[in-house]
Amino acid sequence: MAFEISKMRNIGISAHIDSGKTTLSERILFYCNKIHAIHEVRGKDGVGATMDSMELERERGITIASAATNVQWKDTTINLIDTPGHVDFTIEVERSLRVLDGAVLVLCSVGGVQSQTLTVDRQLKRYHVPRLAFINKADRTGANPFRVKNQIVEKLGLNAAFVTMPIGLEDKLEGLVDLIMMKAVYFDGEGGIDIRYAEIPAHLAADAAKYREELLDCASMFSDELAEAYLEGAETPEMIKAAIRKGTIAQQFVPVFVGSAYKNKGVQLLLDGVVDFLPDPTEVKNIALDLDKNEAEQVVVCDAKLPTVALAFKLEDGQYGQLTYVRIYQGELKKGSELFNTRARKKFKVGRLVRMHASAMEDISEGGPGDIVALFGIECASGDTFCDPSVNFAMTSMFVPEPVISLAITPSDKKSSDQMSKALNRFTKEDPTFQTFVDPESNETIIKGMGELHLEVYIERMRREYKCEVTTGMPQVAYREAISQRAEFNYTHKKQTGGSGQYGRVAGYMEPIDGAVYEFVDSIKGGSIPNEYIPSCDKGFKEAVKKGSLIGFPVVNIRCVINDGASHAVDSSDIAFQLAAIGAFREAYEKAKPAILEPIMKVVAEGPAEFQGNIFASVNQRRGLITASTEEASFCRVEAEVPLSEMFGYSTVLRSMTQGKAEFSMEFLKYGKVPTSVSEQLRKEYEEQRRKEQGR
Amino acid sequence: MLKEELIKKSPVRVLERGIEGGLKAGNIGVIASRKGIGKTSVLVQLALDKLMQGKKVIHVSFTTHTSYVISWYENIFNEVAKRKNLEDYSSVHDDLMKNRVIMNFNQEGVSTDQILKSLRAMIVDGGFDADAVIADGFDFARADAGHFSQVRAFAAEMKLEFWYSCTMTGEEPLLDKKNVPVILRPFLDEIAVLIVLDPKAEYIHFVVVKDHGRMNPSDLSIKLDAKTLLIAEA
Ligand SMILES: Nc1nc2c(ncn2[C@@H]2O[C@H](COP(=O)(O)OP(=O)(O)O)[C@@H](O)[C@H]2O)c(=O)[nH]1
Ligand SMILES: [Mg+2]
Among A294, A451, A506, B124, which residue's beta carbon has the most beta carbons within 10 A? Predict the structure, then answer.
C-alpha cells in the first residue's frame, strides 16, 4: 500500500533520559490502536514497552537502538523512529536524525531543561529538524510547565509558545486547555481514550486568554492573513494552525504541548500536533552527495518517478532474521528490482520487503518516496546508500570520526570466544565508530569507540544478546603524535647480502599541516626516483606514520614531501624504496619536534548551585579548563574542556560528590597537546613496556 | 606585528596614562553611558588587553548568554588582529582564550553573597588565578545596598581589578552638574575610576569623571569609533 504523501510523517522523539520518552512512545502506539495494553516501562509484568526491544535498554532506561515503527493516527501514517538519547553514540544519533523530518522534544515538568536536553536540542538544530515540545509529567509533585517553557525560550534560545495549557497541576491535573480551539479537553475512560471537550473553567479563562494571545502574537509573524484577521478578531483555527505550521517547518517556532504520558493526558493532542505542524517528506529538503562528481551536493526530490535513492540507517538482527531499515528519499523501492550499494559498489536484488508495525510485520511489494521500510537478508553496513544503478549518490558523507578510546577484551571461555567474533562482526557493521582489531603484539582483541559508555553498552549487548562473557582491560586513550616544525631528510637504504641487493635514496622534508591527517607530495623534478617507485615512497611513509616513535601512536597532521633521490638499475625495488621512506621518516621525525596529542572532551556538568565549588575543583584536578559557568537561582551549569584520560569514572565521582544531584554530559571536541609532565610519563611507560616486550 | 608591539601600541595605554597608570588591583572602575553606545565593546577591549599580557580575566555577564560573550571576544580579537597584522595569530588566540572564563548570573534571585562565593570558588577551587573581573550588564538600579563595599573588599582580598559597565537609564537629566551619572551617585565612594562615554558630533568621547579620588572631569585623548566600536587614539 502506498500512502498519500501529504499524510505521512517521519518523526523521532528526543529527550533527556527519564523524561518519559519510552512511556510516551508506548502511549502513542496505544492510541494508534496498534497495541492493546499499556505496560508500565518498569512494570511488574516485565513486558515493557514495545519500542525498546532490547533488555539492556530496559534495565538502564536509556534508548540505544533506533528501530522504526509504523503507526496510523486518524488518516495519517506516522513512522516513529527511536532516537538514541546519549551523546556517546554519535553516529547512531546522526543516522537517526538524518531520517527524521520532525521531532518531539520531551521535557520533564519538574526537571526542565537539563544538560542532556541541551545536547539533544543542539543535535536537532545541527540537522535542522523542526520540532514540537512536549512538557511531560505535569502530574508530578513540583511540576511547573510554565517555568519549563521559559527555560525552552531562555536556555534553548527557541521561539516557543504554549498550544495547550494544563488544567490543574501535580495530582490535580485534570485535563488541558486547547489554546487554538479555546476549549477544555478531558481524557475519560480507560487509558484516557475518550476525549471530551468542554468550556474552559472560569478560573482559568484569564490565563487561557493570556497564553492564546502569546501564541497568536508568535503565529502572526508567519502569516499576514492571520495577522490581519487577528486585528479584527476574525481569526479561525485553520488560519492559526497554518501559521504555526509554517513557523515550525521553517524552524523559527516551537509549539509547546503539556501533558502526562503516564496519566494519559494530552498525548492525542500531541499526535494531532504532529499531523498539523510537522512537515511531510516533500516539505523537507534532502541532500545527497554525488560520488561521480567529487561528492558535490545534489538535492534529492520526493518523487516516485525519479531514480531510487535510499539510505540504510539501521541493521537489526532480531527475531525475524537480518533486517535492514531504509529511508527512501527519491523514487520507489520495489520487490524484485535491482539496486546498487554505492559504498560497497555492488548490485543486489531486492528480496522480501516489509513494513514494521508495533506488534506485527507486514509484507509489502513496494515503498514510495519519503517512506521507511525494511529489507530482508541484504548484505550491507548501516549508513550505506542504495541507488538505482543509473545514479551514484551517497546520503551520508564517507567521513567517520576516529575512535578516541580503546579497551582490551578477553572471552571467558571457548563458547564466548566463538560468540564474541559474531557479535563484534555485527556491531562493527552497524556502527562505523565502533572498531575492533587484534593487537599483533599482545594478541588481545581490542575494541575502540567514542567514549566509555559507548564501549560499555556493546559489552553489555554481547553479554545479553550473544551470551558472551568477557573480561575487560583498562580503557586506553587514543593518543596521537604530531610534529611541530619542518624537518629535512636524506636517507639511503642499502643492503648487500649476496644475491640481489636493495638500494634506494629518498630526500625531502616533512612538515605539519592543518585539516588533513596525512599528505604525500611528489615534487621531484628530473626523475631522480623513477616514476614506478614514487608510490613505494608513499607506501613507506604511510607505514611509518602508523606508529610514531614517542609512544607508538599514529602520527597525524603531517605532509611528507620528496624532492630528490637516487636509484640503482639492478638493486632498486618497490620494497627498497618503501624501506628508504621509512628510514627517511625516522631520520627526520625527532628533528621535527614531535608532540603527543590527546582527545579533549567538551564537558557540561550541572546541578544545584551549592555544588559549584566542587564541580570547579573536580575540573581543575582533571587538568580541565573551565570555559563558562551559569548560575540561576539555585541552579548551576559548568562548561569545561577536559582531557578524556582524566574523565574515566567521572560519573561516579560526580555522583558521590553531589549526592547524586548533579549530572554531566560530554562530547569529543578536539585533539590537544599534552603538557610536558604528562608527556614524559607516557614516554616512560612506553619505554618500559617496550623493554618488557623485548625481554620476553 | 608582534604581540609585544601590539600591547605597547594599544590605545588602552593612553587610557591608563589618563588615570594615573591604570585602575590597579583592589579597585572598582565603571564605564557608563546610555544604552547602545558600546560599553560591552570597551570592556571586552580592556579584557583582551589584559589577556594579551598573559593575565587572567573573569568575564561576568548579567544579561547575555555565554555564546554572545564569546562572539564579542572573537569578533574584536579578529578585527584587531587583522588590522594590526598580528603574527602567529592562531596560537596567540588560543593562549588568550585559555585565560578567560565566562560566568553568567541572573541578577534576579542571585545575591551579592552568592556571586562573590561563586567568584571565590572559581579562583580558589577552580584554580583560576584571576587578575581582573569584567562585569557587564549589571543593573545598578537593582543593586543591594552593600553590593559595592562587599565587592571592593573582595577585590582587595583577591587582588583583582574590577571593571563594571553601567547603563544610564531613568529620567533626564541622566548626569548631575559634576557629570556623575545620577544612577551612580549612591555608590560614588566605592568607585575609584569613573569614565562616561559621551557621543559627540565627530566621535564618542571618553570623559574621566572620577580619577582615583579626584573629581576633575577631563577628556581622554582616545575615542570610540561608532562604526567599528574599536578604541582609537583621538
Ligand atoms: N509521574 C509521571 N511519571 C512518568 C511520566 N512519564 C513517564 N514517567 C515515569 O518516568 C520514568 C522514566 O520514564 P521512561 O519512559 O522510561 O523515560 P525515558 O528514559 O525518557 O525513556 C518511569 O518510571 C515512568 O513511569 C508522566 O507523565 N508522569
Ligand atoms: Mg527509554
Answer: A506
Q: Tell me the whole-structure pTM to 2 decimals.
A: 0.68
Angle at Cα A464 formed by Cα A458 and Cα A467, nearest 5°?
A: 105
Question: Is A461 close to ligand 1, i.e. is its CB under 6 Å away?
Answer: no
Q: Across the interface, do B109 and A614 touch by the CB < 8 Å criterion?
A: no
Q: What is the CATH number of domain A286-395?
A: 2.40.30.10
* Burial class of A153 by CB neighbour count within 10 A (0 to 12, 13 to 18, 19+): middle
| pLDDT exceeds cutoff 50 at A64 | no
Q: What is the pLDDT of residues A19-57, one digit of tens each?
A: 888 888 888 888 886 444 444 443 434 444 444 444 433
A5-214+253-281 CATH, one of 3.30.70.20, 1.20.950.20, 3.90.180.10, 3.40.50.300:
3.40.50.300
User: Domain B3-233 carries which CATH code?
Assistant: 3.40.50.300
CATH of A405-478, picked from 1.25.40.390, 3.40.50.1970, 3.30.70.870, 3.40.1650.10, is 3.30.70.870
What does R_g of chain A's alpha carbons equal in angstroms?
A: 29
Residue of B nearest to A616 (CA): B126
pLDDT digits (tens, 9 = 90+) for B85-95: 988 888 899 99
How far A513 CA sits from the closest chain B CA (Å)? 14
* Distance of alpha carbon A8 from alpha carbon A253, whole angstroms: 21
Residue A423, H or E segment: helix A414-430
> pLDDT (tens digit, 9 = 90+) per residue, A371-423?
999 998 888 888 889 999 999 998 876 556 778 889 999 998 888 888 999 89
The answer to whether the CB of A262 is under 6 A from ligand 1 is yes
Q: Please list the ranges in chain B whose pLDDT falls under 50.
A: none
Q: How far are the Cα atoms of A236, A354, A432, A455, A542 from residue A399, in angstroms, in the given order? A: 49, 30, 10, 21, 19
**Residues of chain A by 3-state class (helix, strand, coil), percent to 5:** 30, 35, 35
Amino acid at B62: F
